[in-house]
Amino acid sequence: MEEKYGGDVLAGPGGGGGLGPVDVPSARLTKYIVLLCLTKFLKAVGLFESYDLLKAVHIVQFIFILKLGTAFFMVLFQKPFSSGKSITKHQWIKIFKHAVAGCIISLLWFFGLTLCGPLRTLLLFEHSDIVVISLLSVLFTSSGGGPAKGGVLLLVLALCCKVGFHTASRKLSIDVGGAKRLQALSHLVSVLLLCPWVIVLSVTTESKVESWFSLIMPFTTVIFFVMILDFYVDSVCSVKMEVSKCARYGSFPIFISALLFGNFWTHPITDQLRAMNKAAHQESTEHVLSGGVVVSAVFFILSANILSSPSKRGQKGTLVGYSPEGTPLYNFMGDAFQHSSQSIPRFIKESLKQILEENDSRQIFYFLCLNLLFTFVELFYGVLTNSLGLISDGFHMLFDCSALVMGLFAALMSRWKATRIFSYGYGRIEILSGFINGLFLMVIAFFVFMESVARLIDPPELDTHMLTPVSVGGLIVNLIGICAFSHAHNHNHGASQGSCHSSDHSHSHHMHGHSDHGHGHSHGSAGRGMNANMRGVFLHVLADTLGSIGVIVSTVLIEQFGWFIADPLCSLFIAVLIFLSVVPLIKDACQVLLLRLPPEYEKELHVALEKIQKIEGLISYRDPHFWRHSASVVAGTVHIQVTSDVLEQRIVQQVTGILKDAGVNNLTIQVEKEAYFQHMSGLSTGFHDVLAMTKQMESMKYYKDGTYIM
Amino acid sequence: MGTIHLFRKPQRSFFGKLFQEFRLVAADRRSWKILLFGVINLTCTGFLLMWCSSTNSIALTAYTYLTIFDLFSLITCLISYWVMMRKPNPVYSFGFERLEVLAVFASTVLAQLGALFILKESAERFLEQPEIHTGRLLVGTFVALSFNLFTMLSIRNKPFAYVSEAASTSWLQEHVADLSRSLCGIIPGLSSIFLPRMNPFVLIDLAGAFALCITYMLIEINNYFAVDTASAIAIALMTFGTMYPMSVYSGKVLLQTTPPHVIGQLDKLIREVSTLDGVLEVRNEHFWTLGFGSLAGSVHVRIRRDANEQMVLAHVTNRLYTLVSTLTVQIFKDDWIRPALLSGPVAANVLNFSDHHIIPMPSLKGTDDSNPVTSTPAKPSSPPPEFSFNTPGKHVSPVILLNTQTRPSGLGLNHGHTPYSSSLLNQGLGVPGIGATQGFRTGFTNMPSRYGTNNRIGQPKP
C-alpha cells in the first residue's frame, strides 16, 4: 500500500512529461528491465502451458482453479484483512463489481486462447494499457491476420475491456489501499463467485481429466507465471520506470518468446518444459507459424515500440496555452478534452450535463436520442428481415440526424465564453448553423425534386407493403419532435428573451459601468425567430414530417387506386414546400451574416439617430453601423462630431442612453471634435490618410458653418 | 408559415431587382467571359448528369458535383464583380464585401453537403451494388476534367484564389506536397513545378479524374463494380478535405472573429496604445474582418481623468489605423462628472515628438490656412496641473463643468505645423514634474515590455 502511494508520487513527475531531467540513469534500471523480460518470457511459457491445460480442463474450472490459487497466494502475501485500513461496505460493493468484471475478462481471454491458440493470444492480448490507449487515440486499427476470426474479435474485445477495466480500477485501488490488496480481495471474491458455477459444472458434466493430481504441477506454474509473478513484477517495474518505457520493454520479449514458442512448442526440445506430457507427438498444426503471423508479430512489436514512445501530447497542450492567441483555437474538441481531466467518460458526462442545462440543447438532444433509437430499430429490423428499403431508410434517417447533431453542437457552443478570437462570444455560431441547416434543406429539396422529376418521366413500380408501418413510425417520431420544438419555439423565446436580457444587462454593466441608467426594454418582440439554429432544426423536423406524410398519402393512393404517378407528385410537392419554408430562414440568416441593419430595429434606430442629432452641442454623426451579432447581441458603432465646447463623456452618456433604448447593447461611440482632425492630420503619415482626413474636415466645416449660423 | 407571408411582399419586385442588378454586372466586359463559361458549364453539367444516369456510376456523379461547384464559383466571381460596383447603403452599412465571403462559404458548404449525400448514397450502394456501364464513363471524366481545368485556369476568381491562399492547407494538398517533396529529392529539376503550393481545386480535379480512370480500368478488366462506390467515397472525402479548410476560413470571417494571423500585430499595437500617456486601460477590443482582408474593429479606451480625450483619440486612431481600416474608438473616463480641474497641459506631451519632426506635411498647410481657428487644446496660459488622479471627490458638486478648452483663436497658429509641435514642446518642458516621466514613457513605446508597462493588456479581456 505504501509502495503504491510512493509509486504514484514517483510516477507523477515521470509520467507528467519532461518537467526536468527526471530520467533515472539507465544502469539502475537494467535489473528491472531484465526482471521484466524474464517475467514476460515466463508468462509466455505459462500461457502456452495453459493452452495445453485448457484442452483437458473446462474453461470455467480452469479459471476457478487459477483464481483460487492466485487468491490463496495473494492473500498469503498481502494479508489484506489484517493490514491496512478497514474496508467499508461501499468499497466491498465496488470490489465485488471489480471481481465480476475481472471474471468476465478472464473468461473472454481464456476462451479466446482456446480459439486462437497461445501465439495469437499473446500477440493480441499482451499489450500494455498505455499502448492500447495510444493505439485507440490514434485510431490505428490493426487487424491481426489469424484464421480464427471470432477468437480474434473476442480477444480484441477482451483487450479493450481489460484496458477500460484497469483504468476504472485505478481509482478504486487507491480507495481500497493499493492495487495489490485490491487484487487479492478481488481474486478472492471472484473465487467465491465462480464457485457455484464450477460446482454445477462438475456435477453435470463428466470431466475429461484422468487424474487431477497430475495437473497440480502445471496449474501451479500457470498460476505463478501468468498471474502472480507477472502482476508483481509489472507493478514494481511501473513504479520504478516510466510506464511507457515499461510497456516498450515488456512487449518486446513477450512477442519474441511467443514466436519462439510458437515454433518450438511441439518440438522435442521443449518437451522437458512441458509439464503435461502428451503421449505422442502428433503432428499438430496448432502451433504452426504462418508467414502472416510472423509478419504481424513483427509489426506488433514495431507498433508497440512506436506507440509506447512517450507522447508529446501533453507538452503540446501547454504550448498551445502559451501561444499568442491565449487559447487553443483550432480544435474545439481538443480544447474540451484538455479541460476535462483526460478521462473520456467524465468528458461525456460533463458535456451531457452542459447539454441538459439549457432548454434548446436539451430538446435537440432528446429528440436526437429518439431519432437515433428509431433509426437503429429500423436498421436492426431491416437487417433482420433483410429488407433493403428499411436499411436505406435507416441510412436516410442517419443522414438527417447529422443536421440535428450540428444543431446540438451549435447550441452547445453558443454558450461558450468569449475569447480573444471570438471577441463577441460564440453566439453567432447559432446563426451560422441555422444557415448551414437551411442550405442542407435546400440540397435535400433539390435532390428530392430531381428524383421526383426523374420518376415523373419514368414512374417505377413500387413495393408498398413495407412502407406504411415505417413511415407511420417516422411520422410519430417527427410529430413528437414538432410538438417539442414548436413548444420550445414559443416558450423558448420567452425564456431566452429573459435570459438574454439578464446577460445583456450584466454585459453592458460590465462595459459601461460608469454610465448607469435604465436599460430600455423596448425590444419586446424583437427576438422573434431570431434563434436561427432552432429554426433550422425545426424546419428539418418539419421537412421529415412532410416526407412521412407524403409517403403515407402516396402509399394510400397507390394501394387504393393504383396511381403510381402519385408518388413523384407527392415528392415534388414536398420538395417545393421544403424549399419555400427554408427561404425565409436563409434570407434572415444571410441578412445577419451580411451585417444588415436589424430589420426589427430599423424604425427604432432611425428614431434614435434623429434624436441623437438633436442633442445639444452635436454637429453630426457619421458611419453609423448597427448589426445583429447573435440572438442576444446587437452591436453598434457610431462616430459623432461635436462642437469643441461640450464634454465628450456627457455626449457619450446621452448617445448611449438613446441607443440602448433602441435596443443596441454593444456600443462603441467615438466622439470627435475639431481638435481630433487637427491631431490626426498632424499625425498621419500617409498621403491617403491625410487626404481622407482633409475630406472629413471639409465635411466638418460644412456642418460647422451650419452651427455658426445657428 | 407566417414567415413566408412576410416574405411575399418584397418578392414581387425581387426578380425585377435581380434582373436589374444582373444587367448592371453584365455591363462589365469582364463578366461576359464568366457568363459564357457559366452557359458552357450548364450544358456540360446537363450532359454529365445524363451520362451519370446512363452509366449508373456514383463516382461520376460525385465528380459531376465538382462541376456544379465550379458553377457556384463562377457565380461567386460574378458576385465579387457586383460587390465592387456597389456602395454601402444605410441598411447594409458595411457595404457588400461580405457577400463575397458568404458566397464562398455557401458554395463550399454546398459542395460538402453534396459530398455527404454521395457518402449516404454509397453507403446504400454497398448493400446492393448495381451494375455500372462503362460506356460514357471515361468520356464524361475527360469532359468534366478538361472543362474544370479550363475554368480554373482561365478565369481569375478573386475570392476563391484569396481563400485558397489564406486558408490552411487541406490534407490532400499536404499529401501531395509530401509526395512532391520526396520526388524533388530524386529529381531536383522538378522543384519549380511541384514545390509551390498546389491549387486545391486543380488538385482535386486531377485526383478525381485519376480515381475515375482507375474505376474504369477495374470495371473493364474484371467487372469489379464495387470500386465505383469506393472511388465515389474517395472523391467525396477528397471534396471534404479540400472544401473544409476554406469553409472554416470563410465561416470564421462570417462569425466576426479576429483572424489569427493578425493577432500578433494587433497585440503589439494595443500594447503601444496602452503605453500612450493618459491611457489607463484598453478593453472590449473587437476586431474582425469585414470582407477578405480589410479589418474592422472597435475598442474602448479608459483614460485618466486629466487626459485630453481628443489627443488620446487621435493617437489611438493613428496607431490602429495602420491595421484596422474601419475603426471606432470610444474614450471614457471614470468619474468624469467631477469638475475637471485640469486640462491639456499634462496630456499635451502625449505626442511623440519624433513623429512630428519627421513628417513633412505639404498638404496640411492649405487646410490649416482655411480654418485658422484650429488648434491644439494646449494652452500656455492654463493653470499648472494638480494631482488628482483617482481621488474621488465626493464632496464636490457635479454641476461645475469648467470649460478649459476655449478657442485659442488669437494665438496665431495659422502658419503650418511648426508652431503646433513647438508649442507642444513647450508644454512638455513647461511641466517638468509629471511631464518628464511621461515623455520618457512614451518615448520608448517600441519596447514596452522591457518596462513592464504592457501588463495591463497582457490578458484577454472578457
TrEMBL record, chain A:
Q: Which parts pass through the membrane?
A: 56-77, 98-120, 132-161, 182-200, 212-234, 246-267, 287-307, 364-383, 395-413, 434-454, 466-485, 537-558, 564-586
The record's keywords, sorted A to Z, are: Antiport, Cytoplasmic vesicle, Golgi apparatus, Ion transport, Membrane, Metal-binding, Transmembrane, Transmembrane helix, Transport, Zinc, Zinc transport
Write down the superkingdom of origin: Eukaryota
Coiled-coil segments, which residues?
Answer: none
Q: Where in the cell is it found?
A: Cytoplasmic vesicle, COPII-coated vesicle membrane; Cytoplasmic vesicle, Secretory vesicle membrane; Golgi apparatus, Golgi stack membrane; Golgi apparatus, trans-Golgi network membrane
Domain (Cation efflux protein transmembrane): give its ranges.
364-594
Molecular function terms from GO: antiporter activity; metal ion binding; zinc ion transmembrane transporter activity
Q: GO terms for CC?
A: ER to Golgi transport vesicle membrane; Golgi cisterna membrane
Q: Which NCBIfam families does the entry mention?
A: CDF
Q: What does this protein do?
A: Functions as a zinc transporter.
Q: State how it assembles.
A: Heterodimer with SLC30A6/ZNT6; form a functional zinc ion transmembrane transporter.
Would you tell me the protein name for this molecule? Answer: Zinc transporter
Which organism is the protein's source? Suricata suricatta (Meerkat)
The gene it comes from is: SLC30A5
TrEMBL record, chain B:
Origin: domain of life: Eukaryota
The listed locations are: Golgi apparatus, trans-Golgi network membrane
What residues form the membrane-spanning segments? 32-51, 63-84, 96-117, 137-155, 201-219, 225-244
Q: Which GO CC terms are listed, alphabetically?
A: Golgi apparatus; membrane
Instruction: Tell me one GO molecular function of this protein.
Output: zinc ion transmembrane transporter activity
Keywords, alphabetical: Golgi apparatus, Ion transport, Membrane, Transmembrane, Transmembrane helix, Transport, Zinc, Zinc transport
Topology term for the membrane: Multi-pass membrane protein
What the entry lists under Pfam families is as follows: Cation_efflux (PF01545)
- Predominant place of localization: Golgi
Chain intervals for the UniProt region annotation (Disordered): 362-388
Which InterPro entries does UniProt cross-reference here? Cation_efflux (IPR002524), Cation_efflux_TM (IPR058533), Cation_efflux_TMD_sf (IPR027469), CDF_SLC30A (IPR052005)
Is the keyword Membrane in the record? yes
Is Membrane included in the keywords of this UniProt record?
A: yes
Cation efflux protein transmembrane domain ranges (all copies): 35-255
Family listed = Belongs to the cation diffusion facilitator (CDF) transporter (TC 2.A.4) family. SLC30A subfamily.
* Record text on subunit structure and interactions: Heterodimer with SLC30A5; form a functional zinc ion transmembrane transporter.
Function as written in the Swiss-Prot or TrEMBL entry: Has probably no intrinsic transporter activity but together with SLC30A5 forms a functional zinc ion:proton antiporter heterodimer, mediating zinc entry into the lumen of organelles along the secretory pathway. As part of that zinc ion:proton antiporter, contributes to zinc ion homeostasis within the early secretory pathway and regulates the activation and folding of enzymes like alkaline phosphatases and enzymes involved in phosphatidylinositol glycan anchor biosynthesis.
Name of the protein this chain belongs to: Zinc transporter 6
Protein source organism: Suricata suricatta (Meerkat)
Q: Identify the coding gene.
A: SLC30A6
